[in-house]
Amino acid sequence: MKLNNKKILLTGASGGIGRELAAALDAAGARICLAGRNEQKLMALKDSLPHASRHFCLAVDLTQDDDLERLNQAGLQYQKEGQGFDIVINNAGANQFACLTDRSMQSVRDELNLNLTAPVLVSKLACGWLNRPGIILNIGSTFGGIGYPGYSVYCAAKSGVYRFSEALDRELYGSGVRALYIAPRATETSLNSPEVQAMNQDLKNQSDSPQLVAKMVVDSLEQERAVRWIGWPEKLFVRVNQILPGVVAGSIQKQHAKIMSYLKK
């Protein structure tokens, strides 16, 4: 899909990937609804974009039913006015690097709600007001294809988003709406704690800049690629993990002591 003059809803817009994605979409000629929890950060992001007048902000908490309904009503109103959304990018997310036994019940619920339930519900609502042709793109993670110590809840959420996107794309066949999935590996954003950054350096885990991830997202939208895994050798490990999970488990087990040392910090 050509992005010039397309109207795009971008959730999690003020985060590390979100900011760079907003810049990339702005450069592609899109009109963006910058959505997130913090209105001040959204406004600052909008004003920083070269074509700020093309964009607008929507302060919503996607884990709250009232805010989801506000988003839904906005989508319906734009559609009624002939200015409906062409693309929805479910980018909002967060994670906590911790052993499951050290997590509170509420922190587990919150992470699942934001990373899994929210994109499912936003996708459901979007099916009612997206223009045809339209695209729903869900941003996942390599951890959606590889279970990793310290990220059990995040892995559960992102693997759910992966299969949800696959199922929804097949369900919507012939409707004019595509559901796509893109999975970055570790990305250089504030989402990673200092402990995680130090662990990645120690284990020589590769990471990508948010600018590169944003470029890949734009490319996936333009090509309408159903699934895309970012990063080598991570994309290979995802495939190996599906066929020979013991091989990947053995590799991670060799790192187990170091991973646990960072989890205990």
UniProtKB/TrEMBL annotation:
A GO MF term: 3-oxoacyl-[acyl-carrier-protein] reductase (NADPH) activity
EC number in record: 1.1.1.100
Recorded family membership: Belongs to the short-chain dehydrogenases/reductases (SDR) family.
Enzyme class per UniProt: oxidoreductase
Gene3D superfamilies: NAD(P)-binding Rossmann-like Domain
GO cellular component, one term: membrane
Keyword entries, A-Z: Oxidoreductase
SUPFAM superfamilies linked: NAD(P)-binding Rossmann-fold domains (SSF51735)
Name listed for the protein in its UniProt record: 3-oxoacyl-[acyl-carrier-protein] reductase FabG
InterPro entries with a match to the protein in the record: NAD(P)-bd_dom_sf, SDR_fam
Pfam families to which the protein is assigned, alphabetical: adh_short
Oxidoreductase recorded as keyword: yes
